[in-house]
């Protein structure tokens, strides 16, 4: 494979993530002031199986860090973190012609009381990265569906007010600047810690050797700085 065809990697450290969340939390506390965090997560790392790449979201760590900063930025509010598990199944290169369905699979959800839990709350969905946006779009649509289901149990006269008092927002640590394959409804509250190029981000929780991971992260910064200097 030539260099041009290789996916560019960028190593992200725990400290990078922590600081990106810190930078955003005072604004989120004032503007959105969430009542509940819904972390998108899965327990294992991305892998390829039967020529289908399975991308697994991991918003647990960012959500937990966010809770610490939101507590500082609010009246010591201790936010509940709920978890949903989603995996994005997509064909890997060369199998598109086989028309394998690309879809987001639920591996964990909020339980039978999901709608009750969400209704009337300001819910912030948290994930580590917005890549194609399919995962976030799916999560938002399905959580809203749970709210609509719960509204059917409420008196018709109360439904509009209850619906209006239920707000959803999104926080991702990184948003990749690239054409997205799914859309979010216009006006969706959306925060990203950082806008990044379309590179493959290596997260620290995927590493089995954190010192080596941090060394590679420092090297990425060094190389990027050297490349910028060469350009000027
Ligand atoms: P989506 O394409 O739906 O926006 O992202 C699906 C999932 O793919 C993300 O939640 C994440 O787990 C995984 N993913 C996408 N891009 C990257 C990346 O650059 N690095 C890592 N580690 N995972 C990614």
Report what the structure shows:
The protein is of the alpha/beta class. The strands form 2 sheets. Strands 2, 3, 4, 5, 6, 7, 8 and 9 form an 8-stranded mixed sheet that branches. It has a two-stranded parallel sheet with strand order 1-10. Helix 1 packs across helix 2. The protein starts with 8 loop residues before the first strand and ends with a helix. About 3% of the residues have low confidence. Bound molecules: guanosine-5'-monophosphate. The site of guanosine-5'-monophosphate (5GP) has 18 residues, from strand 4, strand 7, helix 4 and strand 10.
Name the features.
232 residues; eight-stranded mixed beta sheet; 6 helices; binds guanosine-5'-monophosphate
Largest sheet report: 8 strands, mixed
Count of extended strands: 10
What distance separates the N and C termini? 30 Å
Name the helicity range.
25-40%
The multimeric state of the shown protein is: single chain
Q: Give the radius of gyration.
A: 19 Å
Mean pLDDT: 87
Which hetero ligands occur in this complex? guanosine-5'-monophosphate
Strand content: 25-35%
**Secondary structural class:** alpha/beta
| H-E order | EHEEEHEEHEHHEEEH
Shape: elongated
**Could you list the spans in which at least 5 consecutive residues all have pLDDT below 50?**
95-101
Count helical runs: 6
InterPro entries: PRTase-like (IPR029057), PRTase_dom (IPR000836)
Keywords: Glycosyltransferase, Transferase
Protein name: PRTase-like protein
Organism: Lentinula boryana
Briefly characterize the structure.
By secondary structure, the protein is of the alpha/beta class.
């Amino acid at each position: 494979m030539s260099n041009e065809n290789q996916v560019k990697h960028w190593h992200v450290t725990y400290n990078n993530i922590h600081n990106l969340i810190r930078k955003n939390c005072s604004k989120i506390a004032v503007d959105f002031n969430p009542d509940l965090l819904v972390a998108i997560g899965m327990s294992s790392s991305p892998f390829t199986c039967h020529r289908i790449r399975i991308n697994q979201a991991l918003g647990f760590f960012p959500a937990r860090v966010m809770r610490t900063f939101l507590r500082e930025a609010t009246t010591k509010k201790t936010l509940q973190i709920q978890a949903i598990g989603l995996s994005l199944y997509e064909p890997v290169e060369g199998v598109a012609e086989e028309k394998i369905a690309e879809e987001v699979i639920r591996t964990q959800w909020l339980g039978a009381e999901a709608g009750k839990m969400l209704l009337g709350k300001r819910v912030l969905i948290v994930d580590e990265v917005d890549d194609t946006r399919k995962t976030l779009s799916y999560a938002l649509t399905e959580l809203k569906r749970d709210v609509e289901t719960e509204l059917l149990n409420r008196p018709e006269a109360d439904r509009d007010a209850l619906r209006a008092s239920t707000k959803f927002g999104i926080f991702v640590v990184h948003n990749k600047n690239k054409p997205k394959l799914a859309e979010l409804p216009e006006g969706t509250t959306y925060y990203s810690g950082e806008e990044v190029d379309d590179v493959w981000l290596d997260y620290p929780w995927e590493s089995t050797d954190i010192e080596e991971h941090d060394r590679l992260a420092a090297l990425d910064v060094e190389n990027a700085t050297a490349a910028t200097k060469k350009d000027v």
